[in-house]
């Protein structure tokens, strides 16, 4: 019986922590746990046996950190050999105990993917494929992808697992206490991504203890159609006598995990700090609880790296403006590969209330696959919304779906055999929902009956590929009323019947109805309202147009979808107040005040000049790198460089930083804003060099990832922000010995040192580094950060500050070098 067959009959149990137990069994600070597959296989095998005897069904092979970036053949640690040795240890333990499954364990690469880091998506995918091939060859029974903080890297790992093996795939992510991944994703967005990719189980692990993970686990169970796995830490860590210990004992851990099981979690285990005793206790407490597999939820969902959008509860607005048809400026921008204009059009629609953005770059004579890929990569770096990939070029479609960070909406499939045979396999492999046009080889049916028949055919064919109707948005095809007087009514009947008779979701390109008529916005708005009344799930519209937004907002208020008319009042209340004030001032003959900001957005969006970013501050807030360069040059025409830095650049960075601290801005936005600021600073520096000026450096900060740890994502993020704020950063890299850090601190008399560690096994290296710094560089202030740390843990190992994020590091360094930190 395989793991999936077992999961159909009962709840299953994964093992617990590895690194903390290997420390107890002799692993030295800075020593890489994976090397023990070859150096101490007896210890690894015994650890697996202990977990199997405690009741675990699945043991995770000691491969979490194995990848080409950490282990190189020339250093004597070939990836295939290390993975093979790990598998041998696991198989030996299973044979000795007579039961169990060996899971190939894939962890983060330790690098941040582009555009926020330097690692290319395909390079990450290739690195994971190397490990998957080795694991499948060596006899792994399944694959567990875990401790993922970046949904983009998670997708690379899942694709590698799918493309290099046929093994069952489980994938778990790490959240902070707000329920957010490192790069801004959440339970809803990652569930949409992973279910779209077709993994066999999804879940949460590491970062938090079972109490903190419980509400997020319940939400995942509520929305997921596949089994949910939860592997928490044993509470919060602290240091005792050079060892990392955790604050939740096995009995307490098991009690909370019982609540997880009763909430519908299908697979239970542990992460950092958990032991065979934790697994034994939770197994004993949960084994007799009622169990059933999760039911199919039939949710129509698309996602970006940061948010999910569900169709069906409330009508969805799909922004249509990134489409060159009838837009000379956009056409020219695409020919020039001017992505900053395209980004500004996307951001404008996001600000105007769109939920999804359509992306169409089709122009004669261009390389559409290349341009579509470029557009998707650029947009997903600054826009929070899911994207609709709109192209008839199949190469462009596949390349864009592959590199898209999330579950995309694709436009489109239709009822022709050729279309379905090309699109459905892409949806199955990469995940996605599709706009499905109600036409086939016979063209567009003239009647609603004909279009319903095509819709049924598309549903049935999709089902044969394993694609549910929830992943199809039927387009009833809106024809121009100027050429077909019954066209609108036929479309509306089709929309209504797809919902009522077929239980499907629908979408329309609303503006098609008014083609050839004057004052098209009036027809469009009226037709949009009629479509909404007939049950339309989503409209592809221009969200910047006031008429369309007014119809939409009013419809929500009148149908009870806008609770207590809260949204309507928040938008139109200020407008009404402004109008009254304007009338009173006009009566008195005074100048009218400025328009309400929403009115300005709506009116400006109707002008042909829409899309241009407004000022240096805005380009930094929006993370528009090229636009920031341009606006920096414009700002220098009015002010000198130092004034621009002090009055515009630093305040903009402060604004983004405060948003990050409040949780209204997430890491991808913070990093893109930092990149935009960096581009603007480069323009300033060039001007200052010409004028013989220089920006004063605040001071020097040393950054390093400690000995034995190759994960430098957090360190690199801190570096970018510190440099933007005017610090000189001496980056010593990763896997840095304590002696090297001390040496550089003493040599430069550096006053602030930042240390990073991701792994439980490398925190003792951090503690040793702090000890040596205290002895030989007592003047230095030490800030620490990393996934396994807490403030209490940082205090216990002698750090001056625990910095939970990059902005906290900037603030602490500022305090130290400005003399406010004693």
Automatic annotation (TrEMBL):
SUPFAM superfamilies: Cobalamin (vitamin B12)-binding domain, Dihydropteroate synthetase-like, Homocysteine S-methyltransferase, Methionine synthase domain. GO terms for biological process: homocysteine metabolic process; methylation; tetrahydrofolate metabolic process. It holds the Pfam family B12-binding. Pathway: Amino-acid biosynthesis; L-methionine biosynthesis via de novo pathway; L-methionine from L-homocysteine (MetH route): step 1/1. Residues 582-603 have a biased composition (Basic and acidic residues). It is an enzyme of class 2 (transferase). InterPro entries: Cbl-bd_cap, Cobalamin-bd, Cobalamin-bd_sf, Dihydropteroate_synth-like_sf, HCY_dom, HCY_dom_sf, Met_Synthase/Corrinoid, Meth_synthase_dom. Residues 603-696 form the B12-binding N-terminal domain. It catalyses: (6S)-5-methyl-5,6,7,8-tetrahydrofolate + L-homocysteine = (6S)-5,6,7,8-tetrahydrofolate + L-methionine. GO terms for cellular component: cytosol. Keywords: Amino-acid biosynthesis, Cobalamin, Cobalt, Metal-binding, Methionine biosynthesis, Methyltransferase, S-adenosyl-L-methionine, Transferase, Zinc. One of its GO terms (molecular function) is methionine synthase activity. Coiled coil: none annotated. Residues 315-562 form the Pterin-binding domain. Its cofactor is Zn(2+); methylcob(III)alamin. It comes from the Bacteria. Residues 698-822 form the B12-binding domain. Belongs to the vitamin-B12 dependent methionine synthase family. PANTHER family: METHIONINE SYNTHASE. Catalyzes the transfer of a methyl group from methyl-cobalamin to homocysteine, yielding enzyme-bound cob(I)alamin and methionine. Subsequently, remethylates the cofactor using methyltetrahydrofolate. This is Methionine synthase. It comes from Candidatus Copromonas faecavium.
């Amino acid at each position: 019986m395989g793991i999936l067959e077992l999961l159909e009959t009962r709840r299953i149990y994964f093992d617990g922590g590895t690194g903390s137990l290997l420390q107890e069994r002799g692993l030295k600070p800075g020593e890489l746990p994976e090397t023990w597959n070859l150096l101490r296989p007896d210890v690894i095998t015994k650890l697996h046996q202990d977990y199997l005897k405690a009741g675990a069904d699945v043991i995770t092979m000691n491969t979490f950190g194995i990848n080409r970036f950490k282990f190189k053949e020339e250093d004597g640690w070939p990836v295939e050999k290390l993975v093979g040795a790990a598998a041998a240890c696991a198989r030996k333990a299973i044979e000795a105990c007579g039961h169990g499954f060996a899971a190939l364990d894939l962890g983060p690469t330790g690098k941040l993917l582009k555009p926020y880091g330097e690692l290319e998506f395909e390079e990450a995918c290739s690195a994971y494929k190397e490990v998957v091939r080795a694991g499948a060859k060596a006899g792994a029974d399944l694959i567990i992808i875990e401790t993922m903080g970046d949904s983009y890297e998670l997708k690379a790992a899942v694709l590698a697992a799918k493309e290099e093996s046929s093994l069952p795939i489980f994938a778990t992510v790490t959240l902070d206490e707000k329920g957010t991944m490192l790069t801004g994703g959440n339970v809803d967005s990652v569930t949409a991504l992973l279910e779209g990719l077709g993994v066999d189980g999804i879940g949460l692990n590491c970062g938090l203890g079972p109490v903190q993970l419980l509400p997020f686990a319940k939400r995942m169970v509520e929305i997921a159609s596949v089994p949910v796995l939860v592997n928490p830490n044993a509470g919060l860590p602290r240091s005792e006598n050079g060892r990392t210990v955790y604050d939740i004992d096995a009995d307490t851990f098991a009690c909370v995990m019982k609540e997880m099981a009763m909430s519908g979690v299908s697979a239970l285990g542990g992460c950092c700090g958990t032991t065979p005793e934790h697994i034994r206790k939770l197994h004993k407490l949960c084994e007799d609880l009622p169990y059933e597999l999760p039911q199919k939820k039939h949710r129509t969902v698309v996602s970006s790296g940061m948010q999910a959008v569900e169709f069906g509860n409330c009508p969805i607005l799909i922004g249509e403006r990134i489409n060159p048809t009838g837009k000379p400026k956009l056409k020219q921008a695409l020919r020039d590969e001017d992505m900053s204009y395209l980004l500004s059009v996307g951001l404008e629609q996001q600000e105007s209330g769109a939920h999804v953005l359509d992306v169409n770059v089709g122009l004669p004579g261009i390389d559409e696959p290349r341009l579509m890929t470029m557009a998707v990569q650029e947009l997903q770096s600054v826009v929070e919304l899911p994207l609709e990939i709109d192209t008839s070029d199949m190469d462009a479609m596949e390349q864009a779906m592959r590199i898209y960070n999330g579950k995309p909406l694709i436009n489109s499939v239709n009822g022709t055999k050729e279309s379905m045979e090309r699109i459905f396999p892409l949806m199955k492999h990469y995940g996605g929902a599709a706009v499905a046009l109600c036409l086939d080889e016979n063209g567009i049916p003239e009647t609603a009956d004909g279009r319903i028949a095509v819709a049924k055919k598309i549903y049935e064919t999709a089902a044969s590929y394993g694609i549910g109707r929830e992943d199809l948005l039927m387009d009833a095809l809106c024809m121009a009323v100027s050429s077909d007087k019954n066209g609108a009514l036929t479309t509306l009947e089709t929309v209504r019947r797809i919902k009522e008779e077929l239980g499907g979701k629908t979408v329309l390109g609303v503006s098609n109805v008014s083609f050839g008529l004057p004052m098209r916005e009036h027809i469009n708005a009226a037709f949009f309202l009629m479509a909404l009344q007939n049950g339309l799930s989503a409209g592809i519209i221009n969200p910047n147009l006031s008429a369309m937004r007014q119809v939409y907002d009013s419809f929500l208020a009148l149908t009870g979808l806008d609770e207590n008319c809260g949204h309507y009042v928040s938008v139109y209340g200020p407008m009404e107040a402004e109008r009254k004030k304007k009338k009173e001032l006009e009566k008195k003959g005074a100048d009218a005040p400025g328009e309400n900001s929403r009115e300005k957005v709506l009116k400006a969006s109707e002008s042909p000049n829409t899309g241009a970013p407004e000022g240096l501050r805005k380009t930094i807030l929006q993370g528009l790198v090229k636009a920031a360069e341009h606006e920096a040059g414009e700002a220098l025409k009015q002010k000198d460089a130092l004034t621009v830095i002090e009055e515009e650049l630093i305040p903009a960075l402060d604004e983004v930083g405060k948003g990050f601290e409040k949780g209204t801005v997430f890491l991808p936005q913070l990093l893109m804003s930092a990149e935009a600021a960096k581009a603007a600073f480069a323009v300033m520096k060039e001007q200052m060099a010409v004028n013989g000026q220089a920006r004063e450096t605040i001071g020097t900060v040393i950054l390093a990832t400690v000995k034995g740890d190759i994960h430098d994502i957090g360190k690199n993020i801190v570096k970018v922000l510190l440099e933007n704020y005017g610090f000189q950063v001496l980056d010593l890299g990763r896997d840095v010995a304590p002696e090297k850090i001390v040496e550089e601190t003493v040599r430069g008399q550096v006053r602030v040192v930042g240390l990073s560690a991701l792994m439980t096994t490398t925190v003792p290296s951090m503690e040793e580094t702090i000890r040596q710094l205290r002895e030989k560089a007592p003047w230095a202030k030490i800030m620490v950060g990393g996934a396994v740390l807490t403030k209490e843990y940082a205090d216990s190992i002698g750090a001056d500050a625990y910095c939970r994020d990059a902005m906290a590091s900037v603030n602490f360094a500022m305090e130290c070098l400005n003399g406010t930190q004693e």
